[in-house]
From TrEMBL:
PANTHER family: HTH-TYPE TRANSCRIPTIONAL REGULATOR GALS, LACI-RELATED TRANSCRIPTIONAL REPRESSOR. The lineage of its organism: Bacteria, Bacillati, Bacillota, Bacilli, Bacillales. CDD domains: HTH_LacI, PBP1_LacI_sugar_binding-like. Residues 1-57 form the HTH lacI-type domain. SUPFAM superfamilies: lambda repressor-like DNA-binding domains, Periplasmic binding protein-like I. It comes from Chengkuizengella axinellae. The keyword Transcription applies. This is LacI family DNA-binding transcriptional regulator.
Amino acid sequence: MTNKIKDVSAKAGVSPTTVSRVLNNSKLVNEKTKRKVLQVIEEMGYIPNASAKNLRSKKTMTIGVIVTDILVSYNADIIKGIENMANSLNYKIIICDAQDQKEKEIDYLNLLYNRTIDGMILVTSTLSDQEIIKIAEQGYNVGVIGRNIDHDLVSCVYNDNGKAVQEVIDHLVENGHKEIAFISGLKDAVDSYERLEGFIYALKRNNISFNPDLVDNGDFSEYGGYQAIKRMIAKGQSFTAVFAANDEMALGVYNAFKELDIKIPEQVAVIGVDNIRVCSYVSPRLSTVAQPKYSMGALMTEKLIDQMNENKYTSSRTFKVSSTLLIRESSDYKI
C-alpha cells in the first residue's frame, strides 16, 4: 500500500501542511520538527508525488486584490497603482469585490488556498489581524493596505491615521470649533476604529471633552453619511463642524445640509478623508486629508511580488506613508 502525506503527518504527530512545508524546505518549520518529519519519511519510505509537488510550486503570475467595496472611490486609485506595478513586473491581477461582507472576503481567499493566484492583497480588510497572520503562517503570501500588522510574514502599507486626525482637529480648533461631530465608517474596519481613536485623543489634546452623542456610523458610503448626520440632527445635537472618516460620507453630509438649508462653512464646517476627485468640484470645495493612494497600491504590489520571490525585503515589510491636510473652502472659516 502506498503511503500518503496524511499517513506521514499522523505518525509524526504534525499536520499535513507541516509535512508539505518540510518537503518544500519551508523556513516556517523549526529544525526539531523538520528532523522528526524527515525521520518518519525515511522510516515509512514515503516518496512525494513529483507531479503534485510541481503543481503546488508552479507560479500563476497572478495576484488577487480584495476590496471591501469596489464602488468606493478610495479604492480606484489604489487598484490602478496595483495594476500598473503588477503589469510592469509581468503579473496579472484579479479584483474581488467583497461588498462589505466578511463572508465574501473569506470565500475569495480560496483563490489563494487552491493556488489559483500566487498572492493576495487585502485593501481595508474587515479580517482581524490574527486571521490575516494565520493565513501568512500557513505559508500563503498576503499583503495589507490600510493598517499596520506587526508580523514578519505580512507586508503592510498604511497611513498614520492618528497624525492625520490630529491635524484635522487642530485646524478646526484653530478656527474656533469646539463642538465637533464625527462620522465613522464600517464598524469592523480598522480604519474606522483608528480614526475614531485618533479623534478622541485629538480632542483630549485640545482640552475638549469627548461627547459620544456627536459620533455616528456612516458605513463609508455617501448615503450612510447622509443618514448619520440626519440622525444626529434629529437627536437635537449641537455642533459647528463635522469630520467624516472619508469623503463619500462627507458628500452625504453636503446633501443633508442642502436639504436643511445649512450653510457650509458659515454655519457648519465639513472635512473628509481621501481627496477623491469630486472634492475639488463640489461647492464649497471640500477640505480633506489626501493619501497617496496610487503609490500605496504600487508599493504594496512591488513588496508582495518581492516577497513571493526570495524575500529581499524581509527586514522592511512595513511601510508608513504620509498624508496631507488640504484646507479648502468647506472649513477655511473662523467662527
